[in-house]
Design a protein that fits this description.
213 residues, mainly alpha, two-stranded parallel ribbon, 7 helices, 2 strands, 5% strand, disordered N terminus
């Protein structure tokens, strides 16, 4: 049988813009919090270099790794899926241990000559074989459930992001907003074009407000 933990980790790794960016790349969380606080403290935020630059060159980008690491809704979805993964893992391990115990009893009974007939031996053997098949089916179902749940959460996160940028760019100050993952897509950009901290701050404010309703 396949190793469930490996499968589950592989499932989690499927999310490209989803929920499982757990490595610390780019700016650290505390640094982002400091930068967000500075944004709040700056009463002239509409006159920052980013806004001045956007008037002549209306392009910006966000660092996806940093964004997912600090966006509270994304972290909540990630935690929810990890809990579901752990629950599935425990369910599978429990079923595996139960079957293993029954197999050991079967082997001991066979070695001790405990089966009175060939028919009783074959019946028990077939029962255990069926349970092993059921266990494999359970493993596949749990893995598929995780994939389905992840896809649903990715859609929720994507909807959250799309609706936010309609709000965020309602004034049309940006003509193009790019996503960048650990400098994979953008080889070079002026630091002023990185609006990750501002986006994270505003999205978290909106998320917290939605949770209070």
């Amino acid at each position: 049988m396949k190793n469930f933990n490996t499968i589950a980790l592989a499932i989690l790794a499927l999310a490209v813009v989803g929920l499982y960016v757990l490595h610390f790349t780019g700016k650290g969380e505390k640094q982002v919090e400091v930068e967000c606080a500075n944004l709040v403290a700056d009463s002239a935020i509409v006159e920052t270099p980013v806004d001045s630059l956007s008037n002549s060159f209306p392009v910006a980008y966000i660092n996806v790794d940093s964004f997912l690491l600090n966006y509270e809704y994304a972290k909540k979805l990630n935690e929810t899926l990890l809990k579901k993964q752990e629950k599935s893992r425990k369910e599978l391990v429990s079923a595996q241990q139960k079957l293993q115990a029954e197999l050991e009893v079967f082997q001991q009974k066979y070695q001790a000559g405990g089966f009175l007939s060939k028919e009783s031996f074959e019946q028990e053997q077939n029962r255990l074989f069926k349970k092993d098949q059921e266990l494999q089916t359970l493993e596949q179902r749990l893995a598929q459930d995780l994939i389905t749940e992840q896809q649903k959460m990715n859609m929720r996160l994507r909807d959250s992001i799309n609706s936010f940028f309609e709000f965020f760019n309602a004034d049309k100050r940006y003509k193009l907003i790019l996503s960048n993952t650990d400098a994979d897509n953008i080889l070079y950009a002026e630091p002023m074009l990185n609006i990750t901290s501002e986006v994270v701050f505003v999205m978290n404010q909106r998320y917290r407000a939605s949770q209070q309703k």
